């Protein structure tokens, strides 16, 4: 099969590679680029472990071909932390509020929550639960995940107000 030349920005870094057009974005990220935060879960878009942000939208990377991401800006859980390693408020609040157990769903949860808070900086508990409905967790019961997202929303709003 012929390969196609793909270019995109992943976590702020411009990347170029040859890939088979039918390669899924999740496999390209993990196997070609070594970006292993997003996980391969169900490969049917049901679990959300592979959720990444593509051009400002949450995308389940197991449902997108790498060729469809041509020229895109892709952010994974790794790309949310500051260049100096300082955790993003969502990452920190997941840690602080015990929003994870086994951690398998966590990268997708955090990446989806990031987009949710970009779209709605002050969500209610019900809005967080609805916004994360496409990301499944088998361990936590979601209560601490929701607490973490709500706490991160507070931190992010405070940071924004302090910057203004």
Summarize the structure.
This protein has helices at 25-32, 77-80, 89-96, 106-119, 125-131, 143-163; strands at 4-10, 13-19, 51-54, 57-60, 73-75.
Question: Can you describe this structure?
Answer:
- This protein is of the alpha+beta class.
- The protein has 2 domains: 4-80, Ubiquitin-like (UB roll), CATH 3.10.20.30; 89-163, Orthogonal Bundle (DNA polymerase, domain 1), CATH 1.10.150.
- The chain is 38% helix and 15% strand.
- It is built from 6 helices and 5 strands.
- Strand 1 and strand 2 form a beta hairpin.
- Helix 3 (89-96) crosses helix 6.
- It is globular and about 50 Å long.
- 40% of the residues are buried.
Keywords:
164 residues, alpha+beta, Ubiquitin-like (UB roll), DNA polymerase, domain 1, 2 domains, five-stranded mixed β-sheet, 5 strands
């Amino acid at each position: 099969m012929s390969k196609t030349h793909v270019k995109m920005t992943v976590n702020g870094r411009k990347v170029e590679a040859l890939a088979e057009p039918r390669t899924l974005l999740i496999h390209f990220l993990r196997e070609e680029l070594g970006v292993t935060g997003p996980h391969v879960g169900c490969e049917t878009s049901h679990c959300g472990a592979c959720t990444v942000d593509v051009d400002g939208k949450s995308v389940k990377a197991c449902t997108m071909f790498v060729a469809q991401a041509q020229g895109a800006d892709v952010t994974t859980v790794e790309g949310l932390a500051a260049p100096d390693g300082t955790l993003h408020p969502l990452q920190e609040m997941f840690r602080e509020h015990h929003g994870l157990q086994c951690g398998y769903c966590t990268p997708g949860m955090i990446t989806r929550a990031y987009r949710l808070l970009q779209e709605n900086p002050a969500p209610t508990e019900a809005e967080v639960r609805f916004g994360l409905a496409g990301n499944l967790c088998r361990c936590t019961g979601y209560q601490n995940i929701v607490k973490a997202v709500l706490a991160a929303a507070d931190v992010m709003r405070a940071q924004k107000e302090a910057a203004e």
